[in-house]
Amino acid sequence: MAEHDPFTSPYHQVRLPGEPQAQPPPDWVSPVLTPMPSSPWGDAEFRRPATLIASFWCWLAATVLAVVGLPTVFAFQHQEFAQVMEARTDGEPVSEAVANATALAMAGMFALALAVLAVPYVVALVNLRNGKEWSRIMLAVLCGPALLFWLVTMVVVANAPEGLSPSPVYAWGALFLATMAAAAVLMFLPPSNDYVRWSRR
Q1: What are the boundaries of each domain within the chain?
Q2: Residue 112 CB coordination number (10 Å)
Q3: What is the pTM of this model?
């Protein structure tokens, strides 16, 4: 039995002085040129999936619709609201200018209150883009208050005084509900789940 040469290497041919040049086997590949084994996660581990990106933009759109869209709808209807205020005043009559200013001020305060309430949504959706698991859980929980807000708005508009048109608010409500539902579904699709699992590593 031939004695094992400690200086031999399985990765390259060893030629001693005086020996002819030996050709490597046909199937031999240099380890320098051999690619590294692929990751079980594939190339997608370095790319944010389209489902998570779409969910981020849908959550952002729903937040903007709540903070800016709804108060804007009310602000555009401030004249109708002012007319209702003038007609329903039991005490001293309210001038048109005061009624318009009151309606616009109420829309502004409404927008400010919604902006404060939207802070947790903004924090969560920013971290959702980075694949943070806690942000998905937080947004899923926050769907409850958002749905309650939508429901209360629809009930209030449905019982609004005569003279106020509910159609713009109904259109806002349909768009808000569809955007939020799409955001919630997209962040739990398989590509989003894979990216969130990879981000935990």
Answers
A1: 49-199
A2: 12
A3: 0.68
Q: What is the mean pLDDT of residues 164-192?
A: 90
Question: Smallest Cα–Cα separation from 43: which of 193, 188, 186, 198?
Answer: 198
How big is the CA angle at 196 (ends 195 and 201), to the nearest 5 degrees?
A: 95
Other beta carbons within 10 Å of 57: 15
Residue 179's pLDDT is 96
Q: How far apart are CA 119 and CA 78, in angstroms?
A: 27
Q: Which residue bears the tokens 């955001």? A: 183
Model confidence at 104, in pLDDT bands (50, 70, 90)? confident
Burial 68-106 (b: 16+ CB within 10 A, else e): ebbbebbbebbebbbbbbeeeeeeeebeeeebbeebbeb
| pLDDT at residue 15 in the model | 63
